[in-house]
Amino acid sequence: MALAACNSSSERVELTPNPPTPPVADGTAELRIHHTSANAPAVNVLANGDVLAGLENVDYQKSSPLLEVPEATYSVQVDGILPGGDVTTVIEGDFDLEDGVRYDIFALGNLGADAPFEFGPFIITNSVSPVASGEARLQVLHGAPVDVPVDVYLTAPDADIAEGGADFTLSYQDFTDQVSVPEGDYQVTLTVAGEASSVLFTSPTLSLPAGADLMVVATLNTAANSDDAPIALLIADGEGSSVVYSTTTGADIRVVHAIGDAPAVDVYANEIAGDPVVANLAFPGATDYLNVPADDYEFLVTVTGETDAVLSQEFSLVDGLQASVFAAGELGEETANLQAVVLDNRRVATEARLRLIHASPFAGPVDIYVTATADISDAEPAFAGVPFNAEELVTTGNVALAEGTYFVTITLAGETDAALGPLEVDLSTSGIYTAVAVGNTADNLGVILLDDLAPTEM
């Protein structure tokens, strides 16, 4: 099985069956690993000291394929990947894998001494068996580490859940049996147990074909609108996995004014009428994240108080998306445009996440240093020759660093004189730190600080 549309604002998620696979050979078991701990780093999974195929650098809300392994006792070890590539063992133990049994092993809970739900392994076993003809099969686990029991409804799309009772009630770590249903279109709804009006999750239409064999896990939503849409479903299909967000999630968008020679601007959605979505945003300013319904939009930018668009761009915003929309380039030049940069904002208990974005057309290609001291004379750049791209802003992505004090210095490519910095930053684990290089002339060259680097108001 494979999800044909995931992380999508589509009203329908299509699942398409893979070609039939032969039954499990005698003397073998099935093994699958799921990373469902929201603040844990990516992991490697080892058996008897060797990394299992397909189980290297497994990140949050990912499931492995179903692996066929000989029945035996295995020493299974899960290593969290630390900054710099070091690892620490977070789960280890001996597991007896028996003939004809499917083992789903979940990394559940949260890391940290104060975490209310301890991080560790959780195992579900089932006998290996075929899915009945004309049916789909699914099993549901409450894997979100919160003390909130949920009611699970599996209904026809857009059915009124108030007209019938819940199919299951699950507390954290509770799971259903494997449940077979006729092939067809369904909707999954999760509510607070006993409170049908307190909806936590509403899926798009899920099209389940005959032969679908799914593990469905309620996990914490670490993407957009996590306060109002706290749950996302991890769906594992035997070959991989996908994440399905609630139709109430929407997209989180923030706007960054990164054009150094441009006046303050207003930003409108779809038409220049009424109040702007963002008003009077001046360089080098940025908004907080704004949640908007998943849909297709045209963002239009005007000089504040005027009605003629100076920039416009169409964006397709999907449920679960978190993006920063930059007005970047040089005003009056073809390089000026709106660009969306998508960054992973999940916080990890074992690392600080630093990311840098090159939005200065004046600087050209640059070298970026991240060092323990302000002196870069003997240092190698962490990122060399990073260009300014007028069509797609270049970002380092999340750089995992150990907690501590660092200096960020940006030079013109191949040079050692600082064009920006050194910027001293104190990084803490679980932190997210974003710096944007901006400026259209030498006089306004600078850095926009976002997320945990943003200055706090006194």
Automatic annotation (TrEMBL):
Residues 1-25 are annotated as: Disordered. It comes from the Bacteria. Residues 29-153, 251-369 form the DUF4397 domain. InterPro entries: DUF4397. Pfam families: DUF4397 (PF14344). Residues 1-10 have a biased composition (Polar residues). This is DUF4397 domain-containing protein. It comes from Aliidiomarina maris. The lineage of its organism: Bacteria, Pseudomonadati, Pseudomonadota, Gammaproteobacteria, Alteromonadales.
